[in-house]
Amino acid sequence: MGKIVSQEELIQVAARERRGGRRVVFTNGCFDLLHPGHVRCLAEARALGDVLVVAVNSDRSARGNKGSERPLVPEQDRAEVLAGLASVDYVTIFDEPTPRELIARVLPNILVKGADWALEQVAGREEVEAAGGRVVSIPLATGYSTTNLVQRIRNHGGAATATPSDTHNKS
């Protein structure tokens, strides 16, 4: 089994890891254009436990959440890039608007989201907390936002660099 797994495989892996006393950390997102803010957040998430699971929005889910022009990068490519990161142990793709159902089945020890999400808005929070897990909010790296990066590319028709004046959007 590689790092990119089906949801059913992920559920089995997570259960096996928890039975072995390892802490499973779960996070999710579109990860359309991977930038240093994503890499830093994933490394911080991984440091909270023993196994980091990343659930990636499918192309259809990303379009529903971000608009018809997103994602820019197909789901399998986004999953492959994430799987290439040392901090990421497993990647799966979900097709729903939120990963709530998947989280309820995986029941990670720790559910992580960026600080741009209020804790009461985090999908799966209730299920994780009811099972004795916790939700952790990780501060965003200043100056990085996929939404702003996409806008800068569209406005300038070329290379874009993050600047401290960029604001964070849920990306």
Description:
The protein is of the alpha/beta class. The chain has a single domain, classed as Rossmann fold (3-Layer(aba) Sandwich), CATH 3.40.50.620. The protein is 39% helix and 16% strand. It has helices at residues 7-19, 36-47, 59-66, 75-83, 100-106, 125-130, 146-156; strands at residues 24-29, 51-57, 90-94, 110-114, 134-138. A five-stranded parallel sheet has the order 3-2-1-4-5. Helix 2 (36-47) links the parallel strand 1 (24-29) and strand 2 (51-57). It is globular and about 50 Å long. The two termini are 29 Å apart. Mean pLDDT is 88; it is low at 162-171.
Task: Show the helix and strand layout.
Layout: H1 7-19, E1 24-29, H2 36-47, E2 51-57, H3 59-66, H4 75-83, E3 90-94, H5 100-106, E4 110-114, H6 125-130, E5 134-138, H7 146-156
Parallel strand pairs: 1-2, 1-4, 2-3, 4-5
Q: Determine the strand fraction and express it as a percent band.
A: 15-25%
Largest sheet: 5 strands, parallel
Helicity range:
25-40%
Major beta sheet, strand line-up: 3-2-1-4-5
Would you identify the CATH architecture?
3-Layer(aba) Sandwich
